[in-house]
Fold:
Amino acid sequence: MKHSRSFAGCSSAPNRSDALKTQPVTSCYGAFSRNGTHLPMSLPVNEPAQQGRLLWMTDTFGDQNGVSSVLKAVHEEIKSRNLPVDLLVCSHTIRPDDHLIVVKPVSEFVFPLYRQQPVRIPNYLSVQRIFRRGKYDRIICSTEGPMGLAALWLKKVFSVESYFFMHTDWMMFAREVLSLEKSGLGRLQKALRIYYKSFGNIFVLNTEHRQWLTGDAMGFDPSRVFMTAHWADPAFSALSSGITVVHPFNRQKPVILYTGRISREKGIMELPAIMGMVRSSIPGARLVVAGTGPAEEELKTALPDAAYLGWVEQESLADLFEAADILLLPSRFDTFSCVVLEALTCGLPVVAYNTKGPRDILEDSVSGYLVETPEEMAGRVVEFFLDPGQQMRMKQAAFKRAETYRADKIMDRLLSDTGLIRISADV
Structure:
C-alpha cells in the first residue's frame, strides 16, 4: 500500500523500496565510463551498495525546455523501477507523484533575457526538513539556480556527498548570447569553477566538457568527473502513421526538419543560408521548424517559406521525425543533443556540427554527418538526397545506434557512480 506524506510547504507521494531488485544489464549503456572511454561490456547489477537514498534537485521540471524533458524521463525510470531516488522541484502548478516531491515557491520572477524559464525561490527551511525526514544521504542537482544553492546548503548542514549534473554550457551561452568579452568570460569561468567544485563531484554529458573540467582551466580531479548520457523517451520507439494530424506538408518533396529552441545560440540564423544552398541543387526541399523561442519572428522574416509548427509535444514529435527525411542541427551549444538521439530512435539521420554532444553520439557518414561549416552542412544534405541508397543505409544505422542508449544501463551507471548500487563489469 502506498502512503502519502506532507511536509511544511510541500507535498509528496513517495513509493519507496527497501532494496533494489537484482537484474541483468546485458550491454554497455552506449555512452562512456567515468574516464570517457567506451564500455562495450556487460554490466550486471549485483545489489545496493548500502541502504542509501538520493535526492535529485532541480529548478525546472514542467517547463518547455530540454532539461525539463530529460528530468521527466528520469522520473519515469525511477518510478518504473522504484529506485531509492526522489526528485524535488519547486512549483505552484506541478502535482506531486511517486518519487516526486513538490515544494511551493515563496517567490517567483523572470529574467528579461530568458522569459520562458521562471526563477522560483523555495522555502529553504522546508527543503531542509524534507531532506532530514526523507533520510537522504546524497544529493544530485541539475540546475544552477535557487535549487543549486539549496543543494549546497544541504551538503553543508548534513555533511553528505553531492553531485552536480551539468546540462548547460554557460561559457558558450555567455559568448554567443551575452557577447561577453575575454575579461567577462574569465570572471564567469572562475565563478563556475568555484560553484562546481563546491559540489565536489560532477556528471557531464560529453567528452569535451570532461576535458575542460579536468584541464588546467578548471582543475577538477578526474576521478570526480563522471560521464553519463540521456536516453530517448519511449514515445520515440512507438511510431504511429497519423502524420497528417501533426502537419500538412507535402511528403512528395524532400523534408528537412529543425526542432528545438528558436534562439540565436542554437545557430538558427544560419538556416536561411543553408537552405538557400540546398535549394540551389534540390529546388523542392522544404524546411519544417518545430519549436518556439525569442528569435522566432526574426527567423520567420529571414525564412518565410518554412513551415512553423510551434511547440510540439513528444507524442507528436515522434510522428514528425518519422515523416521527415533528415534532421538539421546548426547548434554548437548543446551539451548532449537529446534531439539527435530522439531522431535516431525514429530512424531519422542527422547532420550536425562536429562538437560536444553530437560528436559523441553520431557516427560520421554512418548514422548521420558531422560537419564544420554551414557550407559543408548544406553540401551533406544535398549529397544525402541525391543518393537513395545512402538514405536507406543511414536510416538503418540510425536505429542501430539509438539502441545503445538504454535507460536502465545509463541509470545503473549513474547510481553506481554515486555509490547507491554496485555493478560488476566483465570486460
In short: The mean pLDDT is 84. The domain at 234-402 is CATH 3.40.50.2000 (Rossmann fold). The longest helix spans residues 182-199.
